[in-house]
Amino acid sequence: MHCSCVRSSRALSPALLPRLLSHAGCWAPGTRPRGLWSSPRSLASAGETAQPIPLPSQARVVICGGGIVGTSVAYHLAKLGWTEIVLLEQGRLGAGTTRLCAGVVSVAKPISIECKMADYSNSLYEHLEEETGVKTGYVRTGSLCLAQNQDRFLSLKRLASRLNVMGIPCNVIKPKEVSKLHPLVNIHDLVGALHLPGDAVVSPPDVNHALATAAAGHGVQIHERTTVNHVMMDKGHVTAVETDRGAIECEYFVNCAGQWAYELGQASETKVSVPLHGCEHFYLLSKPLAEPLQPSTPVVIDMDGRIYVRAWQGGVLSGGFEKNPKPIFTEGRNQLEIQNMQEDWDHFEPMLSSLLRRMPELEVCEIQQLVNCPESFTPDMRCLMGETPGVHGYFVLAGMNASGLAFAGGAGKYLAEWMTYGYPMANVWPLDIKRFGNLQSSRTFLRHRVMEVMPLLYNLKVPRWDFQTGRQLRTSPLYDRLDTQGARWMEKHGFERAKYFIPAGKDLLSLDASKTFYKPDWFDIVGSEVKCCKEAVCVIDMSSFTKFELTSTDDQALALLQYLCANDLDVPVGHIVHTGMLNERGGYENDCSVVRVKKNSFFIISPTDQQVHCWSWLKKHMPDDPQLHLEDVSWKYTALNLIGPRAMDVLGELSYVSMTPEHFPSLFCKEMSVGYANGIRVMSMTHTGEPGFMLYIPIEVRYTILYYTILYTTGNIPIQESQTTIHYWLYTSRLLYTTGYILLDYWLYTTRLLYTTGYILLDYWLYTTRLLYTTGYILLTTGYILLDYYTLLVIYY
């Protein structure tokens, strides 16, 4: 450990921690900690006392944040031909998290778009020195992702399959091969590893400086020591940026403020939600080893041990993601530039122990410094990218979840394309900031959630895992009833949705703890629910679905939907149209079911997690017409789904109306009485392809009474309570594709489906003909959309 009042060398052994703790955090008065890297170089002035360059009065785009993310956006916009670009930094370039970043660029990421971004960043950083003449410290080291158990090894094989399809080199290797690649790794408890030969390390401030230099060479104006106070808006459009040195009129604003992106969003005239929160992140630096570690030594990522290790100046740099992170800055902005915060050896000790188990030869290594730097995390471990809902021209790129260096190049490229063309050249749906609503933006929620998110970065994520913090933000009126009946819950866009019901006599705790890549313990429970849907009738609470009402005094509502949607919406009153809202390229923005309830009134139903996106897309294209009105009525209706061949018998018995296809045709909606309840919108559709009905029930109706009525007053018709998991099974078994999570880009052209956007189906359709994925679990690498129960029985049995 190196500090002003500790001159003697310290070893890494945990036995020495008591002695280290007595000296922790003791930087000399009047000094500040040195960063891991050389201090960033200023582009705005010749020195600290130089007269600042005046701000321009107007620009086309203003970028806030001079870290590696902000400079990447500026660089890529300039490369795409943008002019009048201004980048503002409240301190010095790269003086935030970039200065203390560990410098690892790895493609070992959990979702495909993140792998793509990291792969592009790697290539960009490799050639940046040639373009700018600025040394970036780039060294192609490769990396080793270790597996201490079979489940981790299986997850690495899944990652390898994805990377192979993307053309990124990788090799699944045996423990003995690990020893050949890295001399210090203890392999006694390993079952295998994934070797990524293309991974690299760089000097983050130097990369940041190179990007800024290249951007400035393309005409970008960079101003340090300039604080953005707030963004000014008019009629939902960005108009100007107010700084401590004056205002700049602009058309576009990009929030790349890192740790302070949340506060900056809240400071706008119209508050912008940027859901992220900071946590402390620790890593240590050692002095050179007796046999100095070569710069090209592979990076080691031991997720089971919760650590990463890279070579650094002949020694090692090692950090990790602990189980008990320390959130910071909940109260908001409290310092101009991020300094190296207080050391905490007690907190770091579990990661230190893991390091010494993995590399025992480091026991005698001398410590130079324990670095504590803040990183920002989002509620779902994915970065925030895109134009904010409700404010045209306000873009965000922040919340990198400790992967800012790896993502910055690719994320900056995609955001620049988004701003230039209206869409990026890759599918960034999982990163779109519109996946979050205001409910996921409270400080308390974010603080609690990131304490779970940070450990999850290295946790083994098996199919169907759910976040445990920040739950019950939104619940159905039937929540208590379903919970009493044994419902097990999942969360979707902040809404609690029942996954399945635990039968009487089953061990609830053991089923909840069922985490596997193979057949889960609850498989047969869901199978019985699917069987009931196919042979009798099930009732599912689907209140979480997004619901809008679009109305007008004349035909404005119809004209808007005709413009946005693929199918013809000029249908008779009472008819339902399954369609999608398209963009100018003919691609899907979201899918929906539209009911024409009156001549100039439409009821729009979309998936739960498309609520903000769908609302934003509609509002973006609505003309400024006071006679056209859009209302989010999701909270005004609950929804029950009756599925199965005997659903018409149930409704017929409760309503005394014939529900046969001759009297109630498919894709038809009618208000009617069901039991004691009046004004129920009954629709002959199920969203799954199975026979059945949707019941949309106004808020004033007592849902529980109607629910009990359906379950217990229908004579001899067997009805079973079922929930979300079987919904996935049923519609996937009939190949009903839902944009947002079951479509993919690559598969579309080979199958000639009439869809052009989406998220992931079979994660690039890995086994195109056999439809079998390497896990032996299910066909989908997303891990939660299953095929028909009977199809799966063939796989398992």
Question: In words, what does this structure look like?
Answer:
The structure is a single chain. The chain has 797 residues and is of the alpha+beta class. It has a domain at 732-796. It is built from 22 helices and 34 strands. Strands 5, 6, 7, 14, 15, 16, 17, 18 and 19 form a 9-stranded mixed beta sheet that branches. A 6-stranded mixed beta sheet has the order 9-2-1-13-21-20. The protein has a 6-stranded mixed beta sheet with strand order 31-32-33-30-24-34, with helices on both faces. α2 links the parallel β1 and β2 (85-88). The longest helix has 21 residues, at 112-132. The chain is globular, with a radius of gyration of 28 Å. Mean pLDDT is 83; it is low at 1-49 and 735-797.
State the helicity in percent bands. 25-40%
| Oligomeric state of this protein | single chain
- Note poorly predicted spans: 1-49, 735-797
Radius of gyration: 28 Å
User: Cα distance, first to last residue?
Assistant: 57 Å
Mean pLDDT: 83
Shape: globular
Structural category is alpha+beta
**What is the count of helical runs?**
22
Per DSSP E runs of 2 or more residues, the count of β-strands stands at 34
> Biggest sheet, in brief?
9 strands, mixed
Estimate what percentage of residues fall within beta strands.
15-25%
Features of this protein?
about 800 residues, alpha+beta, nine-stranded mixed β-sheet, six-stranded mixed β-sheet, 22 helices, globular, disordered C terminus
